[in-house]
Amino acid sequence: MPDVPKSYDEITRATVPEMDSSSRPTAEQKKQAVEGFRALDSDEQALANRVDAALAGNHDAAGVKAEVERNRVTLRGQVPDAAALSRVVDAVRGIDGVGDVADQLVVAGK
User: Fold this and answer.
1) Are 48 and 66 contacting, i.e. CB atoms less than 8 angstroms apart?
2) Which pLDDT band holds residue 39 (cuts at 50, 70, 90)?
3) Cα-based distances in Å from 16 to 3, 7, 22
4) pTM of this prediction?
5) Distance CA 101, CA 95 (A)
6) For the segment 84-103, what is each residue's pLDDT rounded down to a tens digit?
7) What is the DSSP string of the chain?
8) Most CB atoms within 10 A, among 1, 19, 65, 91?
9) 79: β partners
């Protein structure tokens, strides 16, 4: 009797190892995939650290996140009022290495 071709499932079970937890993405990796993760080079990381430190020390920027691409900083989030918006943007513009600030901040509704 000639050999009967195996089914796809039989071939897969025989040749593909069972997936274990080490090959599954972490929750952080899944989040980065959804958000579009881009690794920063060393200069960008240094600038991002300076921006994060400035935002952390500014109570107006409690709801603000910054993204860095080359020397451009994009600000996203909420600020309490219009004056706080100006203060946050001006503070980031004053950081060494910031070339451009993309302001995508919104004033929180009351």
Assistant:
1) yes
2) confident
3) 22, 14, 15
4) 0.66
5) 11
6) 999 999 999 999 999 999 99
7) -PPPPPPHHHHHHHHSPPP-GGGSPPHHHHHHHHHT-----HHHHHHHHHHHHHHHT-GGGTEEEEEEETTEEEEEEEESSHHHHHHHHHHHHTSTT--EEEEEEEEPP-
8) 91
9) 107
Structure tokens at 106: 């919104």
Q: Which residues contact 72 (CB under 8 A, 6 or more apart)?
A: 99, 100, 101, 102
pLDDT tens column, 58-77: 999 998 999 999 999 999 99
Q: What is the DSSP code string of 32-52?
A: HHHHT-----HHHHHHHHHHH
Residue entry with tokens 């050999």: 3
Give the list of residues 6+ apart from residue 55 with CB closer than 8 angstroms, or none: 61, 64, 66, 88, 92
Enter the tokens of residue 63. 């709801």
Task: Give the residue from 104, 92, 100, 105 showing the smallest Cα distance to 50.
Answer: 92
